[in-house]
Write a sequence for this structure.
């Protein structure tokens, strides 16, 4: 089951007129609408369950979620880059 997670950042107006906004939380893939759980779900299905990305995209489509193949591919490349230091440590 998928859902949209809304991030609500409080805004405050200071006495001197300046407006400050809370920072965005750290995301696994900045400037993306995919959460860490979505990336983990896709990677697990691809590498553990041997479910190719195009089949996963068909599943997402049936759920009413339209994703471009290049977008999902970029997410997987970004996730691999983020995990590379851990992989290198495990190899040693």
């Amino acid at each position: 089951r998928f859902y949209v997670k809304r991030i609500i950042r409080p805004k405050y107006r200071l006495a001197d007129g300046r407006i400050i906004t809370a920072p965005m939380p750290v995301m696994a893939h900045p400037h993306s609408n995919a959460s860490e759980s979505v990336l983990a779900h896709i990677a697990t299905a691809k590498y553990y369950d041997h479910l190719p990305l195009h089949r996963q995209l068909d599943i997402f489509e049936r759920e009413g979620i339209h994703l471009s193949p290049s977008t999902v591919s970029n997410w997987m490349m970004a996730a691999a880059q983020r995990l590379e230091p851990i992989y290198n440590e495990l190899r040693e």
In short: The chain has a mean pLDDT of 90. The two ends are 38 Å apart (CA to CA). Residues 57 and 67 are 7 Å apart (CA to CA).
